[in-house]
Amino acid sequence: MGCPKMTEKNYLIALSAFVPFGPVRLSLLLSYFKTAKKVWSLSLSDLAEVGIKEKLALEFISFRDNFNIEAYLERLKKFGIDCVIKGEENYPKNLAEIDSAPLVLYVKGSLKSLDTESVAIVGSRKMTSYGREVAEKFAYEISQAGVTIISGLARGIDTVAHKSALEGGGRTIAVVGSGLNRIYPPENTNLALSIAKDGALISEYPLDYPALRLNFAARNRIISGLSKIVLVIEGAEKSGTLLTASHAAEQGRTVFAVPGQITSPLSFAPHFLIQNGAKIAFSPRDIISELDLQFKVDTAEVEKVMPKDKEEEKILLALESEPLHLDEIARICSFSVSLVSSKLIVMEMKGMVKSLGSGIYKKL
């Protein structure tokens, strides 16, 4: 059931590979039996004594009897994956504070980027073009201020946030809902490798564990737990985005949300959060100011990432001579008020216009 060379850390790594225990149950077992070595060697009657149902107990014993820890440790080494144990000096301090923090983190890359401030950017997998534009803007500029961007490597907003942080010359961390040898979605494999060069890939799941639906809900608490601020860009009424924001609030993190287009179902999450006390982010400056950091941005680079479109150019032309109310801008440009409203939010983020209050804008 073990070998003489096994250390307490290695027993913990072995226990972490049995996912059905989960961090809460495993913590209780460790608290009761004192050591991971003892938990690893528990009999059926021992497990029954502490309330583990027979089906789960038999599943664990079968797993243990067939698990080769030495081979597993060799594979982790081969793939360049470190295991960081809760309580070790390099375990992320922010994450250690939360309830149900993973006892073992699988890490590819370096956690040193967490020595700086960190902001999670989360949103919909099925983002709109507006959501993409906003995610690019915020991740790029916030990363330029030396802030680590954290997200979940999912399609949509997550992917854009990671890529834009890298384009901004910053570091980013991806918290994945699978084992680090099973990157999901597969099209993000190369992105994952780029992230690990200066940042890190993190998982609480063993090396080859598949990307199950429940995993993604569970990993959201880690995304918020690692961060000082959680920024919500887009999300539907029933979405993991709202779950991440909920974890953030419970963990005492600051939640920001970017207003969206009022006609888009994906604006539900940010608008709901704003109605319920989240701070409004009109610009990356709002996030950077919250962190009390100096704002750094290369305007030419931002323009290269986020070019002006014809609608923005038409709005700027309308504002050429004097400030106008958004209703008047809509009339002059023959646009809907909702389109003008959403465009003005983005244009203010870009530093192209400034709100004077009461729906009035001027060109900068």
Q: Beta-strand percentage?
A: 5-15%
In CATH, the architecture of the largest domain is 3-Layer(aba) Sandwich
Secondary structure tally, helices: 18
* Overall number of domains: 3
Mean pLDDT: 90
- Helix content estimate: 40-55%
Overall 3D form: elongated
Tell me the name of the CATH class of the largest domain: Alpha Beta
What is the terminal separation in angstroms? 70 Å
Sheet with most strands: strand arrangement: 1-2-6-5-4-3-7-8-9
Number of strands: 12
| Radius of gyration, CA atoms, in whole angstroms | 23 Å
Given helix and strand content, the structural type is: alpha/beta
Task: Please give the structural blueprint.
Layout lengths: L7 H9 L5 H12 L2 H5 L3 H6 L4 H13 L2 H10 L3 E4 L7 H4 L7 E6 L8 E5 L6 H16 L3 E4 L5 H11 L4 E4 L13 H10 L1 E4 L9 H14 L2 E4 L7 H11 L3 E4 L10 H8 L3 E2 L3 H7 L8 H7 L4 H9 L5 E2 H8 L3 H13 L3 E5 L2 E4 L1
Parallel strand pairs: 3-4, 3-7, 4-5, 5-6, 7-8, 8-9
Antiparallel strand pairs: 1-2, 2-6, 10-12, 11-12
Walkthrough of the structure:
There is one protein chain. This protein has helices at residues 8-16, 22-33, 36-40, 44-49, 54-66, 69-78, 93-96, 129-144, 157-167, 189-198, 213-226, 240-250, 268-275, 284-290, 299-305, 310-318, 326-333, 337-349, and strands spanning 82-85, 104-109, 118-122, 148-151, 172-175, 200-203, 229-232, 254-257, 279-280, 324-325, 353-357, 360-363. The protein has 364 residues and is an alpha/beta fold. The chain folds into 3 domains: 1-77; 108-300, Rossmann fold (3-Layer(aba) Sandwich); 308-363, Winged helix-like DNA-binding domain superfamily/Winged helix DNA-binding domain (Arc Repressor Mutant, subunit A). The strands form 2 sheets. A 9-stranded mixed sheet has the order 1-2-6-5-4-3-7-8-9, with helices on both faces. Helix 10 (189-198) links the parallel strand 5 and strand 6. The longest helix has 16 residues, at 129-144. The radius of gyration is 23 Å and the shape is elongated.
